[in-house]
Amino acid sequence: MSSSLILIIALSVLHVAVFSLMLWIRFRRDEANGAGRETAKVRLCAVCREPATYLGYDGLDPHEQRHPDTGRPYSVNAAHYQPLCAAHC
Question: Most buried residue, 31, 56, 83, 84, by most Cβ within 10 Å?
């Protein structure tokens, strides 16, 4: 066999081995986090009840903070974020 053919075969075997390892790590991590065969929970928009794609700040946090660069208000308390659809972001 030529050295080029041996190199191609060796790299192919290495590629398959690394890919298999990546898949094994991925599925092992999901099982450790409790991710099973359950489907994701669909959240509904707080305004129109359509499927939500965003969590929006409700502006009601008494300890509201402002981003230093943009000046946009935000809260460190996740309870002040409501699910919103794209139309209400």
Answer: 84
